[in-house]
Amino acid sequence: MREKPAPIAYRINDAAEAIGIGRAKLYQLIAAGKIPAKKCDGLTFIRAVDLHAYISGGEDVGPLSTMTEPDR
To answer: Measured between alpha carbons, how far is 43 from 66 in angstroms, rounded to an integer?
Structure first.
């Protein structure tokens, strides 16, 4: 059986889920010009490369091994 190819673009809900944010936050990022969006036949799409670029451009917070959970 063939593997399903990775998507080249996402609809709004799928794009938000892919990067772990809500729809409202994604719309804010689009409005701020931080993530480009395309309209095709009335549908809004976010290209996968643009999501990757947004995430890759984020601030490095250090290696995961140095991150600890707060004491409870």
So the answer is: 42
pTM above 0.90? no
Residues 6+ positions from 64 with CB-CB distance below 8 Å? none
**Where are the domains positioned within the chain?**
9-55
Question: Residue 11: which pLDDT band, with cuts at 50, 70 and 90?
Answer: very high
Q: In whole angstroms, how far apart are CA 47 and each of 8, 16, 63, 69? A: 6, 12, 28, 33
Q: What is the DSSP string of 11-63?
A: EHHHHHHHHT--HHHHHHHHHTTSS--EEETTEEEEEHHHHHHHHHTSPP---
Q: What angle do CA 35, 36, 41 make, to 5 degrees?
A: 135
3-state class of 66 per DSSP?
helix
